Amino acid sequence: MTDQSSRRITTIAVLVALNVAISYFIHIPVPATSGFINLVEAGVLFAGLSYGRKSGFIVGALSGALLDLLAGYPQWLLFSFLIHGLEGYIAGIAVKGKTSKKILFAVLSIMIMLLGYTLAGSFLYNWPAGIASIPTNTIQGIAGALVAFFLLKAINQYQK
């Protein structure tokens, strides 16, 4: 294993751990949807936009699944693995893009998350529950994107 691949694996592992920890400890329960609002999107989008599709998928999938497992929502684990994994993968398409492209793919990623959780909530509970998740997931997506872009800007300034 090369130093570069070791560094990449370590970076991904740290991003997953930080994302799960921050999202677990900073969350707002939403009784209407049997879920919660958290900052998981921040880490997923940051990973994808910074390190690419593969890293975005891994951070998204593992963060989403582990967060649900630890927070007591195991019924969502598989859905979160797939939805957040796809979200990170889509964001990662814009890894080398300009800010406008990154914003476009962040919005697309959030829309994928909204659709995924609407369908998952409908499958687990019913259509009204799936539809009821849209406003809170929208808030979560926007907040996560704002945090991700703040982090991207801060790191870019630091590296200059």
What report would you give on this structure?
With 160 residues, the chain is mostly helical. It has one domain: Arp2/3 complex 21 kDa subunit ARPC3 (Orthogonal Bundle), CATH 1.10.1760. Helices cover 81% and strands 5% of the residues. It has helices spanning 3-25, 40-51, 53-71, 77-92, 99-124, 127-159, and strands at 27-30, 35-38. Strands 1-2 form a two-stranded antiparallel ribbon. Helix 1 (3-25) runs antiparallel to helix 2 (40-51), helix 1 runs parallel beside helix 3 (53-71) and helix 4 (77-92) runs antiparallel to helix 5 (99-124). It is globular and about 50 Å long.
Short description:
The chain has about 160 residues and is mainly alpha-helical. The protein contains 6 helices and 2 strands. It has one domain: Arp2/3 complex 21 kDa subunit ARPC3.
Q: How can the largest sheet be summarized? A: 2 strands, antiparallel
**How many beta-strand segments?**
2
What kind of assembly state do the chains in view correspond to? Answer: single chain
Distance between the termini: 29 Å
Strand order in the largest sheet: 1-2
Helix tally? 6
Task: Tell me the strand percentage band.
Answer: 5-15%
Can you tell me the residue ranges where pLDDT is under 50 for at least 5 consecutive residues? none
Helix content: over 70%
Count of discrete structural domains: 1
The third-level CATH topology is Arp2/3 complex 21 kDa subunit ARPC3
Keywords: Membrane, Transmembrane, Transmembrane helix
Pfam families: ECF-ribofla_trS (PF07155)
Transmembrane segments: 12-37, 57-83, 103-125, 131-152
Protein name: ECF transporter S component
